[in-house]
Design brief:
alpha+beta, Alpha-Beta Plaits, four-stranded antiparallel β-sheet, Copper chaperone
């Protein structure tokens, strides 16, 4: 399993809910969460197979949000 961490502009639970069908229907993503209380609105994605950071960034951007890798 791979875990990816991103900084986003998804600042409310309402905005985060709009992504639920996108992530829930994705065959490789097993779990995800957005911490809207964090200053970076951290998105955490768990994937079961080969998925890379760019795939997730593209998925977020096509749904109207900004997303970038959060450095360690």
């Amino acid at each position: 399993m791979e875990v990816f961490i991103f900084k986003t502009d998804i600042s409310t639970k309402k905005k985060a809910k709009t992504l639920k069908p996108v992530f829930s229907s994705h065959p490789i993503i097993t779990d995800w969460s957005i911490d809207t209380e964090d200053i970076d609105n951290v998105l955490r994605v768990e994937a079961s197979e080969n998925l890379n950071e760019n795939d997730i960034i593209t998925l977020i951007k096509t749904n109207g949000f900004h997303c970038e890798v959060l450095p360690d």
